[in-house]
Amino acid sequence: MSDHISGPRAIADPVIDITDVYAFPCPESARHLILVMNVFPYAGPSATFSDAVIYRLRVRSVSIAPGARAFAVAAEEDVFECTFNGVPPAQEGRCRLPNGEVLAFRVSDERRGSTGGVQLFAGQRSDPFFLDGPMAERTIVTRQLAFKEVGSDRLYGKNVLSIVLRIEWASMLKGGPMFAVVGETLSAGKRPVRLERVGRPEIKNVTLSAKMFDPVNRDLEIRDIYNEEDAFNLSKHYVGAYRARLNANLAFYDGLDGKVDWPLDQHGNHPLTELLLADFLVVDASKPFSETSYFEIEQALLEGRGHATCGGRWLNQDLVDFLLTLYVNAGKGPRIRDGVDAPIAWSSKVFPYMAPPNRPDASAP
Amino acid sequence: MMLDRPLTDGAIALLNLDAQIDALELEGRFTHATVEARAGLVELIVLRGLVLGQIADYDRAEEIAEQLVRDAPTDATAWVARARTRAVFHRFNDALADLNRAERLSLDVETANGERAAIFQALGRYDEALALRYDAVVRRESFENVAALVGLHAERSEMDAAERRYAQSLNLHRGVSPFPLALLDFQLGLMWMDEGRPEDARRSFEAAQRRVPAYAPAQGHLAEVEAELGETNSALVRLYSLAASSDDPDYAAQLAHILGEAGWGDESRHWGRLAAARYEELLASRPEAFADHAAEFWLAAGADPDKALRWAKMNLDVRDTPRSRSLLAQAVAKCGTQQPSRKGPAPCSSARWSTS
Fold first, then answer.
1. Which residues on B lie below 8 Å from A191 (Cβ)?
2. Whole-number average pLDDT of chain B
3. For a Cys-Cys bond, which of A154, B132, B152, B193 suits B117, CB 3.0-4.6 Å?
4. pLDDT score, position A174
């Protein structure tokens, strides 16, 4: 499930559990970039942002490294830090912007929450992610594609807590127009500790969590260690463990159709491994909004061509079908479907984009 | 010892616990929730019961766990969930049997031993519990594994060790949820009470209550400490709201006791009657679970040593801990019997509020 329930710490306290991060050019205005961070999977009606957590989005300018199939990420970054206090219905928040300004807002208030160059919404929304999670797990257990023609979406009708930022990117962000985006939750206080981080979808769950194929750490729950890492500066102590896990699991997915579409190099590295280790969304704010452009910039980089779209990630893309097809046949074969093609409610192309929260009794289809 | 970073406000944490439970309850009602999700729901409801002192939550958790075992008899997770609810209601042998079953179905050793250690501790089998807990810490020095030692050392009256492990737990704690730390403070508070150090107990219970203001058992014990220190009014203020809102008779029993000691006889009898009726009701359906607290009640405000003795004996049958033995000794003493014995009732009678 995208990044829902992605490790023991997130399971223990959903208020720190980032379910998804999205980044896309504003559908209504080329001057704006939209960043979304969702937390709290399966949020019931009383779900509330923690007053002890910093909800942070980090943005760095990024370019294609010359002569390498990798991104060159700027050292400087722009940070949006949201904190909350009080309890509903009067929970309030503050977002510290990269220019030092503080944007005060009220949770669930769609009308207020803007300052020069930034508009913000925070509150409960419909979870836009969809997939057949049990069949994804079954695929790993049985080592065969287990998806059905019509799947069952356990996220159908579920809600999350969302933070949506609409940013005038040219004035608010350094560099560009291509940006790397990471969402994080950290404990507040004098020395914040990173609790969760998310860049790309389905890295920790679909791609990293299975242990059985890993030749190095077959009994290691790797996700909490991974969560603690700085996405832009991985610790050299653990990167070997992440690489081994990714190589093994990506090779497993590649083999599900009985043929090899992603030949490993002489060191046993999967062609996607290094790109996925750079675990951030890459979005080109100068390109027009696109609904299905996730990973297009990365694919272009792998193929040695210029990218054609904004990349990033839009709320409504059928991410699981895309990923399965990418991992299993590199997009060279038939589309691999999980049998779930839509959420309960499509997101809108108007701020705050995320569909309103579902009623508690919204039932599964 | 202070934590160097904030935790989620206790009221927010409780709202979020409700939010998790509500969403998972709905999930179970409308779809075929996974075994893991339902087992997770059991755990969350037990936690809420523990924090709010709500017996209805334990009942609900048990109901879900029983159904889970019926629906997924080949899944170890289901048996572990049921073992937890059985342990909550002091059905320790049944809980151990469930764990054995889960282990045969592929439950990993670490989880099985963690669950077993908690039951051994409740049964007073401290050496076995300690061996398993130390083994877990050697394997993985996590907050959960080290924190589990705090309560165990506390029950063994090993104060230095308990305090040392408490400090170590704080250093290992990474999240922002206030519940684990509030539960830890509470365990230290119980230790200080047992050791006759009410000021230290007050400090620990207050710490627990600061982390989670609605933490009912912490409030109840804080009231007990305050009463012991002569701060009767403060104790009564705490207990009135607990006794009125909780379905656990302990608070009404405590209130009756403190009111009685303060000379408020009529009101004491009112709360005593309420407590007695509720204990009778609970003992009729779950004698093992409430035998100890019922015995304490009838030894104190309930003033029925016959009943106290009967339930103290049963409690000792359920678990042979220092506290159980002490409770039986008190009951025997109250009845005028010389030797604590598990056989035969003691000859005494002075029932005032019996409802049976």
1. 4-5
2. 92
3. B132
4. 96
